[in-house]
Known about the structure:
The complex is a heterodimer.
Chain A: H1 4-31, H2 41-48, E1 51-52, E2 59-60, H3 63-67, H4 71-74, H5 76-88, H6 92-95, H7 117-126, H8 141-154, H9 181-184
Antiparallel strand pairs in A: 1-2
Helix pairs in contact in A: 5-8, 7-8
Chain B: H1 18-29, H2 35-40, H3 44-73, H4 83-118, H5 126-148, H6 173-201, H7 214-245, H8 259-293, H9 300-313, H10 329-341, H11 343-359, H12 366-388, H13 391-397, H14 401-431, H15 437-463, H16 480-510, E1 540-541, E2 558-559, E3 568-572, E4 579-584, H17 591-605, H18 612-615, H19 617-628
Antiparallel strand pairs in B: 1-2, 3-4
Helix pairs in contact in B: 3-4, 3-5, 3-16, 4-5, 4-6, 4-7, 4-8, 5-6, 5-17, 6-7, 7-8, 7-9, 8-11, 8-14, 9-11, 12-14, 12-15, 14-15, 15-16, 17-19
Amino acid sequence: MVGPVQRxxxxxxxxxxxxxxxxxxxxxxxxxxxxxxxxxxxxxxxxENFRLMKNGIGGAPxxxxxxxxxxxxxxxxxxxxxxxxxSWFGCAACxxxxxxxxGPSFIDGWWLYxxxxxxxxxxxxxxxxxxxxxxxDRMTTDEIGQLAGYIKALGAYAATNSAPSRNDDxxxxxxxxxxxxxxxxxxxxxxxHPDQGPSP
Amino acid sequence: MTGVDxxxxxxxxxxxQDAEVERHLSRTWGTSPGFWGAIATVDHKVIARRYIATAxxxxxxxxxxxxxxxxxxxxxxxRLIDPDRYNQIFTMHGTNMMFLFAVPVMGAMAIxxxxxxxxxxxxxFPRLNAFSYWIFLIGGSLxxxxxxxxAAPDVGWFAYVPLSGPQYSPGKRTDxxxxxxxxxxxxALAIAIEVVVTVFKQRAPGMSLxxxxxxxxxxxxxxxxxxxxxxxxMFASTTLILDRLVGTQFYNPAEGGDALLWQHLFWFFGHPxxxxxxxxxxxxxxxxxxxxxGRPIFGYLALVMALITTGILSFGLWVHHMFVVGLPRMGExxxxxxxxxxxxxxxxxxxxxxATLWLGRPVFRVPLLFxxxxxxxxxxxxxxxxxxxxxxxxxxxxxxxxxxxxxHYVLVGGAVFPLLGAIYYWFPxxxxxxxxxTLGRWAFGLIxxxxxxxFFPMHILGLQGMPRRIYTYQPELPWSGLxxxxxxxxxxxxxxxxxxxxxxxxxxxxxxxxxxxxxGASTLEWATPSPxxxxxxxRIPVVQDxxxxxxxxxxxxxxxxxxxxxxxxxxxxxxxxxPEARESSPQNSIWPFWAALATSFMLVWSxxxxxxxxxxxxxxxxALIAWFWxxxxxxxxx
Lengths: 200, 638
């Protein structure tokens, strides 16, 4: 015979099991990490509509970027695509592997136009004075976002789990998933700032 | 007042009647009731049942993935599954079937059957056995959780670098794969050690090496293969994680690493792996067959020698997976020769079974049907195996559906058919109930026909040039008809498995009672009630013959003199199985469970940070200390 105490214990454990299952399902739904291979054209159009401050430093990203969950800065896939784009579009010609050269360094913690995603996207898309070309007509919105996210990760003070690891190449510096960048990595021959370019 | 309730330090079974021995042994060896009792048990039968059930759940999940792939490939340019998901699905299917179904289920059958067949009370290192199951369960769940999170590996079940390396496989997908490998390696190695020690040191008195059942021989050879092959993949998966996480250069050619190293390491494990799955099946067939033909197995010595030969040769043919990589011609010729040579011991086995069938009077019960299905299918797979062993032919069909057809014939034909037969055969022993003969015949028929209709056309597709792992194909290519045919046939195969699982669930509750020896078999596991009591045998049997349970003998001779007030079993010599010592066997313990949790915590954390190996080792050490700390039980005495 099943007593009332045992019955209520069973009932409670059944409810607990249901709640745990729902919680697990919700957790899985929350933590899913899908890859977006082709951005919806409407979303892509919205992503273009960020507002930049008059002086070209910082601004407000479009709402849709937050709705997507800031993919370019957080997902490993986008960051690693950014790393490929960095070499495919010849960024290394001026910026080296991040330590800078003709162009400014990305790992010394000094950002001429500020470290925000919006200004990095603007720098890539529209170019900047003193030699930074505009890639507006050569890269898609998605690619610009991926590259900007990667560049932001290059100089991170704390490595994230989604930062890319080493390439199958000769190595001049530890991989991007090691941080803080400025302390670990060779920053280049000369201290680049603050006279490395025009202060905005 | 009799002496029963007095707890004297040495209660020997010599002095007691059967009923009293049974009462003592049940108390000494039993599993305590309740949740924590179930977690703490170290009974090899309970753990093996869990192992088998878990592995079959993974089989169902992997089968559903296969159906999803067939649904996608049923017509050209299908958009049901996108390429990224498809990559995850075929990787999950292969990984799951190899690492979470085939290897564990064979190990689990060994854990269940070997102690019973050699006449002992528990497997050697029973707590390690419990640990092994928890590790396997957590590792398998980890892989499926990653699939649910859309973060499943997508690099194929052999995860070649550089595709799986840090540059081309972003995120934690491949790390999860590699760490899942570590989990299954640990659990498989644990089982292998237990089986070897159980067979070599715990056999019933008189069971000399030439009286061991073929299944037990097969499990020993399989265990040695695991012990020698697994370290290779363990090294491979660990170095892959190191490359990806901390930037070592094992597989980076630009810094002196070697991408080819991965292929060698993987296939040095991966080819013996095929035989790790196949040899237990050989053992199962050889142990089931005599029961259904009414005569002992033909060519016992030849069969055992063929098993050992296969085990050794299997380490000399891994390069035939790499013929198109571009290796020296001389090496390729050597591995062609060795790959063809392994057909010789396989042929010996087949002829021994055919001779056994020929000389006996076959009774076509369900297990025998599966055995015949196995022989037919496996021979066909073996034939295509000899074909792809030749370099020119392999170059032509490499990475096509021909290879897909070949290895499904070998693995499903060579391992799953005997396994299903073995489930029908040993289900009565495990549950005390018979499975249905009618449903069993339906299941066999559907699975056999469905299998051949599904996989035979893949040979033709392969010869027509359809590559493996493609998520779709264009309508202009001449493949759509056969693909649709295969997809429809796969439903027949799936239906067969559905009937099988329905039969299992139905028989679990409502099957006819089996009795100790429903088939009239001659090996020791049938000398004890079904399901066996926690202590396996009331008294340890003494073996005088290769077939200890001959119908003409009414009684089995037994050995006495073991203590019944603590877990004790008999240790015997390796060759002759002469009694050497009474050895205590560990009690139930909760600590293998906590140790497995601590180990899993460390392994999962180490995907994200190398420091996990340092800090995560602390809980592992605590759990292990508690595990081995003397608890003052009688088992702690020497």
